[in-house]
Amino acid sequence: MVPDESAPASPTPAAGSPARDLARRVISRQGTPIRIVLGLAITAVGVVFLLVSMTVQTIALITGIGILLVGAAVLLGGAGRNEPDGSRAGSVARIVVRILGVLLVLLGAGMALWPAAGAPLLSLLLTIALVAFALTTAVRAFRPGVDQRITGIIAAVATLAVAAITVFWPVLTLVVFRLGVGAWFVFVGLQLLVRALVRRSPAHHSPADSTPGRRSGMRWLRTIGASIALVLAVALAAGSGSLLGGAPLPLPDAFYTPPAQVPSTPGTMIRSEPLTVGVPEGAKAWRILYTTTNPDGTPAVSSGTVLAPADPGPDPLPLLTVAHGTVGVVPGCAPSLSAAPFADGAGTAMADMVTKHGWVAVTSDYIGLGTKGPHPYLVGDAEARNVWDASRAVLASGPVKVSTDTVIWGHSQGGQGSLWTGQIAASYAPEFTVKGVAAFAPAADLYGLAEAIKTETAGKTVSAYIAATWDKVFPDLQVAAHLTPGSAGPVNRIGGLCFNGHDGLAAILRGSQVPNQIFPDAMMSGPFGDELKAQEPTGPFPAPVLIAQGLADPLVKPAIQHGWVQARCAAGVPIDYRTYPGLGHVELVGPDSPLTPQLEQWTLDRWSGAPATPDCDHLPG
């Protein structure tokens, strides 16, 4: 990728100033050793990138040094030589290359001297430097007398692909960034080193070296090297775009569009239809559309799912009321639209309860995920009303008969939702008798959680979902107007991604590229922070409560959960608190988790009326 230096020198150098002539003579004598040193140094920078884990500041420092060295190589490559035909085009090309070389030196020096300037600015400087080098390579490729224009163009395009990688990953620390930029430095350094050694070799000055075969071999070697660099750079850039772009969202079809006249009573079934995708063996399923309420209490419509035994029979079956976890905040993210609608949360345990124990599981999509929003993300009371109205609709006129006795489950966002569903049961859904409430890694202390993870990747992703929805749910807070600088764009992009499958990875990766916490500390200490605190379910709860927490959870911090449980116990709320060493946020509810059989037995015990097992007096550490 180093600009081509194969143009032959003019046999009669043009006259110049004494200082310029002296410089040309010095570079003519010492140029090759200097090129060797530069090639080794630039290659070393690339190797450090590829092999050493570094902080943003260290990356900026090393990158700046590398760009400065590349700029020096560019300036050295054209020093002391005239274009072979003395053409005006050649002179213009030389001037352009010198200007770009100086720009590279200045950009590199700026990054090296001010590594604490902030990742977005540093990434911008690096992108400009890479584009400048690509222009340098392209200009040199079209310089009079150069016989490897195709190679130069390939190298320029490869450098632009690396520049695209720096745009995709502006925080600088991700592995993809390090691979792309590190490999680029290695290729630039090795090409400079090889050319310098070839120039120094006696064979290079012998008549044999001028044979057509020798020249052709060198040209092919350079072209192959540039082509390999292009393929690798484009692959990384395309892979980055694919990872960050997510998957096309499924579009809600006509089923999710309510009729012109919708009943005003919450919990009224509008329609249902069989669901065949992702249904566990031994079960049958439906998706449902029903009435509920917006966060402000106005009428709304939500969708959901019903999972029942394949042969439910005529009698009412035990009811499992389920609040699902985070799947996103836009209509295409509804679980009922997913290829795996029953995989969320404790999906294995839910399937067992249906197929082995004859229960019916009813899950709300929540408003805004399949139907018109806004989605009340982590707004406890609103989520709970959506959950209750799904069960009420099924109870009144669902595709299968269910009992009025129920156990409530929920994971993560749904864990908070399940606690709220239990908390408002008596006032909102008195027709049901709650036998138990189980929450797995619930976002119970939302304020404490937001504070604890505000600078972490997962925390930034969750914060983006809150910002994308609360600006509509709580317009008086004016959330969008008070985000940290540079957060608005990432919030919009993350808000359009679902939090499952390919989209889930894209959402997390985009969260990793948000340079700052999304909510400034001033917001956390004001009305916005008060609203976060208001989403904490504090009880009382109408039935025994099970809280399950993985001790390796990177999202819902165990210490935050432990503090919430302690506070509830101190307030006289009995809690069955179970912790699971080594399990993360998702692993806690996985099929192989020890929670799975325990949860099933706990649910059956609540149904049979077995004594509860609170352990406030012996909380696990």
Task: Write up this protein.
It comes from Microbacterium panaciterrae. The chain crosses the membrane at residues 34-53, 59-80, 92-114, 120-138, 150-169, 175-198, 219-239. InterPro entries: AB_hydrolase_fold, Lipase_secreted. This is Lipase. Keywords: Membrane, Transmembrane, Transmembrane helix. With 621 residues, this protein is of the alpha/beta class. The chain has 3 domains: 22-201; 265-444 and 539-618, Rossmann fold (3-Layer(aba) Sandwich); 448-534. Helices cover 51% and strands 11% of the residues. The chain has 20 helices and 9 strands. It has helices spanning 18-51, 56-78, 88-113, 119-141, 149-168, 175-200, 202-205, 212-245, 347-355, 380-397, 413-423, 425-428, 446-452, 457-473, 488-495, 501-512, 521-524, 527-534, 558-570, 595-608; strands at residues 269-275, 283-293, 299-309, 317-323, 360-364, 402-411, 433-440, 545-550, 575-580. The protein has a 9-stranded mixed β-sheet, sandwiched between helices. It is elongated.
In short:
This protein has 621 residues and is α/β, with parallel strands linked by helices.
Give the SSE layout.
Blueprint: H1 18-51, H2 56-78, H3 88-113, H4 119-141, H5 149-168, H6 175-200, H7 202-205, H8 212-245, E1 269-275, E2 283-293, E3 299-309, E4 317-323, H9 347-355, E5 360-364, H10 380-397, E6 402-411, H11 413-423, H12 425-428, E7 433-440, H13 446-452, H14 457-473, H15 488-495, H16 501-512, H17 521-524, H18 527-534, E8 545-550, H19 558-570, E9 575-580, H20 595-608
Helix pairs in contact: 1-2, 1-6, 2-3, 2-4, 3-4, 4-5, 5-6, 5-8, 6-8, 9-20, 10-11, 13-18, 14-15, 14-16, 15-16
